[in-house]
């Protein structure tokens, strides 16, 4: 299946000069969504995660589907102030400022095997911060999974040395 044909390009979003890779067209295609979920699970099964951590917000979609297929639990990592219970937090640098990610303190036990999932890797900043948060809790990071990888931005080189799976490269 030609996955790139199911991903829409939107020029100049969210600002001029950016080419946005829109996955909503993939999500609405039942056959494409089923195919990409099965392919993702096939490529991640050997990592044997106990938990899939999905980054806000599109990581929730693919992370949940993947957790289901792998028989793992799903844990959301959210932006600051979005989770109702006690949280662990991590601040990280953005191109123009800082941001913060949070995870419930009771979401994971130390030594849990964790796979981090998102729809896209660009520079790797959010994925690296999520990995730092997972390691800070004492979990074993078994890998990363992304639907799309923007190779020119070289985000992969900023990630820890674990398996990195991406299904579509631009």
Automatic annotation (TrEMBL):
Q: Which ranges carry the Phosphoribosyltransferase domain?
A: 34-149
Q: Which CDD domains match?
A: PRTases_typeI (cd06223)
What keywords appear on the UniProt entry? Cytoplasm, Glycosyltransferase, Purine salvage, Transferase
Task: Tell me the Gene Ontology biological-process terms attached to this UniProt entry.
Answer: adenine salvage; AMP salvage; purine ribonucleoside salvage
List locations, semicolon-separated: Cytoplasm
**Top enzyme category:** transferase
EC number(s) reported in the record: 2.4.2.7
Pathway note: Purine metabolism; AMP biosynthesis via salvage pathway; AMP from adenine: step 1/1
Recorded GO MF terms: adenine binding; adenine phosphoribosyltransferase activity; AMP binding
Could you name the Gene Ontology cellular component terms for this entry?
cytoplasm
Which reaction equation describes what this protein catalyses? AMP + diphosphate = 5-phospho-alpha-D-ribose 1-diphosphate + adenine
Note the superkingdom of the native organism.
Bacteria
Q: What does this protein do?
A: Catalyzes a salvage reaction resulting in the formation of AMP, that is energically less costly than de novo synthesis.
What interactions and quaternary structure are annotated?
A: Homodimer.
* Similarity comment: family membership: Belongs to the purine/pyrimidine phosphoribosyltransferase family.
**What is the name attached to this protein's record?**
Adenine phosphoribosyltransferase
Originating organism: Aetokthonos hydrillicola Thurmond2011
For this protein's source organism, the top of the classification is: Bacteria, Bacillati, Cyanobacteriota, Cyanophyceae, Nostocales
């Amino acid at each position: 299946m030609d996955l790139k044909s199911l991903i829409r390009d939107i020029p100049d979003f969210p600002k001029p000069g950016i080419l946005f890779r829109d996955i909503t067209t993939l999500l609405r295609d039942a056959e494409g969504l089923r195919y990409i979920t099965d392919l993702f699970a096939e490529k991640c099964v050997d990592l044997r995660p106990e938990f899939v951590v999905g980054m806000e917000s599109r990581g929730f979609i693919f992370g949940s589907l993947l957790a289901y297929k792998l028989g793992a639990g799903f844990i959301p990592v959210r932006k600051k102030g979005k989770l109702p219970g006690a949280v662990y937090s991590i601040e990280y640098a953005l191109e123009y400022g800082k941001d913060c990610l949070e995870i419930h303190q009771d979401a994971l036990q130390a030594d849990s095997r964790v796979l981090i999932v998102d729809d896209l890797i660009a520079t790797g900043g959010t994925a690296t911060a999520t990995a730092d948060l997972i390691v800070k809790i004492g979990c074993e990071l078994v890998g990363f999974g992304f639907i799309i990888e923007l190779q020119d931005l070289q985000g992969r080189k900023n990630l820890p040395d674990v398996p990195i799976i991406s299904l579509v490269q631009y």
